[in-house]
Each structure stands twice: as structure tokens, then as C-alpha cells.
What does this fold into?
Amino acid sequence: MRLRVGTRLENILQEGHFAVTVEVGPPRGANPDVMRKKADLLRGCADAFNVTDNQTAVVRMSSLGGAKILLDEGLEPVMQMTVRDRNRIALQSDLLGAWALGLRNCLCISGDHQKAGAQGKLKGHPGAKNVYDVDSIQLISILKNLGDKAVQEGGDSLDEPAPFFIGAAWTPFAPPEDFRVIRLAKKIKAGADFIQTQAVFDVARFKSSMEKAHKMGLTEKAAILAGIIVPKSAGMLRYMNNNVPGVDVPEDLIKRLKSAKDTQTEAVKITIELIEAVRFIPGVKGVHLQAIEAEEMLPEIIKKAGLLPRPKIA
Amino acid sequence: MDSKIDKGKFEPEMVVLFCQHCMGKDEDPKAALNKISGLKAEFLIMPCSSKVETSHMVKILADGADGLLVVGCKTDRCRFLTGSTMAEKRVDYARGLLDEIRMGVDRLRMERGEELSCLQMMALVQSQADAVRALGPNPMKGAKKR
Amino acid sequence: MIIGEWKPIEEIVTMLDKHKNVLLVGCATCMAECSAGGEKEVETLAPLLRMAMKVKGRTINIYTKTLERQCEWEFIEELTPIIPKVEAVLSLACGIGVQAIAERFPEVRVYPGVNTTSLAIREEPGLWAVRCEACGDCMLAETFGLCPIARCAKGLLNGPCGGTRNDGKCEVDENVDCVWKLIVERASACGRIEDLMNIRKAKQWSHSSHGGQKRMLREDLRP
Ligand code: SF4
Ligand code: SF4
It folds into this structure.
């Protein structure tokens, strides 16, 4: 099969390897060394590295800037792009700039509302004016057209195409649950090449969502990477279960982590079990790992899960 | 405001809005009032405490009354079921406004009673007057153009 | 209707700081309906402002008037006899009414007493909620009569974001239903869920205020 873009991630998926992506949050500051340190820590552990775009609407180094630093360090970034802060003009312009700098993977998401930032420890910018000129599905279409047809959303043509390997998010469990797979289908129809899901803790429930996606033929059309968040503590699991939409943590898991003698060891164990469990669900083509503010845990987890070394690509 | 006013001697002028059902049938608060020396109050009877509007309450205070007491029926005894509850919500809202302009929320209060005797009513007024006394006279005193 | 709510009294008091004679004007239409600027509110705010000023050691003379509609020239004319007596007008109309008065009486300062917030419906007594954002390109036909522009915090056009809470409320406000959940439910109730499969293209915001100042011209109605 011909590669659409030729990124490492695309290659890995196309060659049938079980892909590993991890999330790298840019710093709340302008120091490039923070990104470089994370690159050193995670080099070789994953096929691609998601760089978040002002997650929870808290201002951080841009995903474009952060992704470029990773690229310079020899890691393959996935630039995340939300539609919260930029209109179609800015989005497309940044995409062209990103492409020119060598970035080729892009994950298209709605983004947390700016009021979400105010709910955490940080102030964020709840008084900001948001944009939401296009939605995440429309952004996927925009990327598709920049790459396949070399045309902008408004109809003007580009000098030459700027193809991206296009990613999208999927939250299978949030209400209205029956519609979630339809929304996934829309994203794939719009042009998504790969999908990273919201964190999975309830494997059985995820399996049944995957079956629905499989029946609709979606697992053939796009590569679904199961999202896995390293559970740092029982409190964090409880918090996510109660407060993070679409995250459903079985009570047993919370209890298990709570009663563990060594939380960290148990957390690693749980993560590895989750990876192994989702790995054998038909249609799951990889995992997307997040260790929020604990990225140093990832190399060990990935190694113990038997996912190292990452395959070489031709 | 005249700071020389001795708050101990200041006798607030009260207005009492009360629902006809919360006092005993033959009780006459005006007559009873005369028997209590010093207490100054004007009694206005309403068919139901829910008839009180925010604008009435604010106006009574803006016209110079030092304190305003709204007396309604007990929650479960209101003839109009939710009348006294509605009145209480409005009183709370109006108290919020008084707070916003720093007039002192305690100039306005709601009490509830059932078949009150004159004596009981006077006790309510007296206790509200004590609260108002602490706030001093209404700066709007004498504002009402007659 | 248009909804709004009183500005903080402190802000109003500061606005009126330099004035001795003020006309407080209500509007008996939308602002009366949403209990922000009808006759009742005018008659509450006027004594309240007198007190607020007095507390600060100042006196103010407030005239009051409530017009049938503050956004129509013919009703605004009713203010003509009072305007010469005042230095300022405090309007409890929506922003349209405030501007109409400012336009008609340029000789006085005009202040808004209300923050106009949205185009809404009274869902229940004492509870109003947004329904429309005047986007100029109504898409209610495709969304089963529920507006995702006004009622989705992100104005999404192709289905719910991943943030819908487990109880179906919006990620941004635990008291508000995720409108996309409602749209999906209504579509299912009509047996037309497949209508929501279509990918809705990027919206042409040029029909809304994003496209510049809106005007509407009907030659047939002009003198
Ligand atoms: S689609 Fe536009 S015009 Fe229609 S209700 Fe929504 S905002 Fe108003
Ligand atoms: S939860 Fe629903 S209403 Fe709220 S932003 Fe997301 S899609 Fe819109």
C-alpha cells in the first residue's frame, strides 16, 4: 500500500506493528530545554510523541514550537491542534508553517473550553474570547484538502499540497453513547487516518465500543490507538472517574491501587495489564500513553510491556 | 449622618407589613402599640405576605423608615400555599440589595407567626427594633416629600 | 426575547457620580419580561439608588418613566418633556434601547443600567436560558430545532465534543444540558439519526456579526 504522507507513525501502522505514541506536555514557559529533557527521557520509547495544544486552556509553549523542538531532537512529533483559539485563517496558516518546518502528524481536536482552565489549580484565562470558527471534524476536512487537493477551505489553491497524517480523538463512553461511534465514523469519513481514544480503564466496555466500530468497518479505515493514562494514585482515579467526562474507572481498580503496598509499582503493573488487555481487542492498532506530569514512568512501562525496542522502519 | 446621635437613645421608626392571617382575629396592634412606651411602628395589613413587592420594601426604606419588618404565615400554614415562601424570597433578595448599597441588611427582616397575639407581635417588632438601633438612623430620614 | 440583568449597583452609582438630576427609563418589553427593566424594576432601582447615593453622602433627584418599547422612535418621543430637566439618562433597556436614547437625545449623557446578555427563553419562572445567537444562517432544520451555535459552549456543528458529562450535562456548565445530547435524542425520537451522519461544512459566519455591521434593507417598505 502506498503511504499517504510517509511519517514514521504511518509507516509503523502500515507495516502492521503495534504502535506506541506518548503525550508530551510543553512547559508553561519559553525554555526549550524543558522539551529537550523530555525528548532525552523518552527517545526511542515511542513511534510518535503528541505535543498538546494549551491543554485545559492553560497557556503553554505552542504545540507547533514544542513539536519542532522534538523534531530537532530526532523524535517524531504529533502536533495537536485545537479549534478553540484560532480561526480557519490562523489554523491553515499555522498548518502550512508547521509543514514547512517538517511537522507531518497532526491531531485535530475541539479543545477544552477556556472556562475549564479555571477549574484546576491554575487561573487560566476564563475571560478569553474563544473562536470555534470550525469544529474538529471540519478541521480534519481542512487538513485533508490541504494535502489531497492543495486547496484551502475558502477554495483558493496552494502552490503545492501539504499532506499531513491526520489524527482525531474518540471518547467512546461519553453520552450520548450510541452516537459516539457515529461521530467517529464522521471523523474518519472527513479524513482521519488515525484515532487516539480517551483513556480506557474499563476494558470490557471499550471492547464493546470497538466491536461497534469494527462492525461499521471503521477499524479498517483508520488506525485506532487505545488511550491509556498511567494511574498515579487511587485519588487520581477517583477524580477522573467523577470529573473527567467519558472516563469510567471500575471500582475494583480504584480499590486495588488504594490497597497496594507500593502505589508506584502497582500503577506500573496496572498500566501494563491495560496495555496487554487492549492489545488483543480486534481493531486496536496501538496505544497512546499519557503519564500526566510523570513522563519519567513511561520508559519502564513501555519496556515491561514488551514494546521495546520500537521497530525500525525502512 | 449626624455622628452625635446617641445610639442608645435613638428609637427607630419601624414599619410592619403583616399578613392578615398571622394575627389573631380580634387583635389590634395599633392599640397595643400605645401601651409600649417608646416603640414607634406603623402597621400595614396585607391579604397575604406574598403581596409585598421588592419595590415596596425598597421604597419604604428610601422614604425614611429605619426598619421594616415583614410578617407572614408559617411555611405550611399559608392560605395561598407558597405565599409566605415567595415573600421570604423577595425579602432575601431585597436584603441582598441593601447589602450591596451598604444600608445594613438588618433594616429589613421577615418573621413568621400564626394567630399572633398583640404581645407576641410587639415582641417581634421590639427585637427587630433592637437590631435596627444598632445600625443607627436611616440616612434617608425626612426624605419623603409629603 | 432579549435578556439582561442589572449592572452591579456600585457600578451604576459610579457612572452617575457627577449627576444631580437623572432620568431612569425602563422598557416594558423584553427587559420587563426578564425582570431587569420593567416598571417594577424601575420603581425598585430608583429608591435604591437614592439610598445608595445618600449612604455616600450625596443626594440625587431621579425621575422615572417606563416606555412601551425603548427601541422605537415613537415611544422614545415621550421622553422629550423630561430631558431638559436632567443631565443624564440611566436606561434599563437592552443595548438597543440605550443606543436609541443616546441617538435621539445627544445633549444628555446616556448610561446602561443593564448588561444585555442574550436572546433567550424563559424556561421556568425565574430561569432564562439562551436560544439563539442571531447567526444569520439558521440551521435549526438540520439540528432538529435545537441550536448548537447558541447552546453548545463550543458551537460545534457535527456532534458533541468529548466533554459531555456522564449525566448528559455540558462540560462547561453542570446545570446546562449538552445540546448535542439533546439533538441526538430528538433525532433518534424522529428515527432520523442518519441525518446527523452528514458532515456539516464550515459555517459561513459572514452572515453574522463577524461579517461586519448588519443592516437589513427593504426598498418596498421605504418612504
Ligand atoms: S442557527 Fe443561528 S439563527 Fe438559528 S437559532 Fe441558532 S444562532 Fe439563531
Ligand atoms: S458538552 Fe456538549 S454542549 Fe458542551 S461544549 Fe461539548 S458538545 Fe457543546
Observations:
- Residues 140 and 222 of chain A are 13 Å apart (CA to CA).
- The domain at 8-304 of chain A is CATH 3.20.20.220 (TIM Barrel).
